[in-house]
Amino acid sequence: MRAVLQRVSRAEVRVDGAVAGAVGSGLCILLGVARGDSAAGAERLAAKTARLRVFPDEEGRFDRSLAEAGGSALVVSQFTLLADTAKGNRPSFTEAAPPEEAEPLYERFCEALRELGIPVEQGVFGARMEVELVNDGPVTILLE
Questions:
Q1: Among 55, 79, 109, 125, which one carries the catalytic annotation?
Q2: SS3 of residue 83 by DSSP
Q3: Among this protein's residues, is 78 annotated catalytic?
Q4: Is 79 a catalytic residue?
Q5: Do the Cβ atoms of 139 and 90 come closer than 8 Å?
Q6: Is the pTM of this model over 0.90?
């Protein structure tokens, strides 16, 4: 499982022109599920995401977690994070889990964040989405 975390001042995802999910200050999380990933792995990644100290304290240092900063998470499924570009010019997505395996793990990740007290908004799994965000910092972190 791979996640790209972007600290944002706001973010939203639209499907067919309608807002599916939106947050103010917090994290926009692009989540890719790989073959062989598990519910336990989704829970571990959610816990790491919730605890990661990427929000500033009064002195501007990275010292607050998402929960401590009072932020929300917008979670968007993105199988393209598992792209293999080692050969040729066309990415291979064979490492990405098929939708019937990936969707329950995507949902488990979101639910695990909620269980940790993080307000969560979501994109629509498998849909073609437009993501708009204002990266705060900019701060972008890759977690695996």
A1: 79
A2: coil
A3: yes
A4: yes
A5: no
A6: yes
Instruction: Kindly write down the DSSP assignment for every residue of 25-74, as one continuous string.
Output: SEEEEEEE-BTT--HHHHHHHHHHHHH---EE-TTS-EEE-TTTTT-EEE
Phi and psi dihedrals of 40, rounded to 5? -65, -40
Structure tokens at 127: 């849909």
Yes or no: say if 64 and 51 are a contact pair by the CB < 8 Å rule: no
As a whole number of angstroms, the distance between CA 53 and CA 71 comes to 12
Residue 34 has pLDDT above 90, yes or no: yes
Residue 110's pLDDT band, with cuts at 50, 70 and 90, is very high
User: Which residues, in sequence order, are bridge partners of residue 32?
Assistant: 2
- Residues 10-21 have pLDDT tens digits of 999 999 999 999
Amino acid letter, residue 51: R
Whether the CB-CB separation of 96 and 82 falls below 8 Å is answered with yes
**Per annotation, catalytic residue among 6, 49, 78, 122:** 78
Give residue 67's pLDDT: 92
The pLDDT value recorded for residue 60 is: 87
Amino acid code (one letter) for 17: G
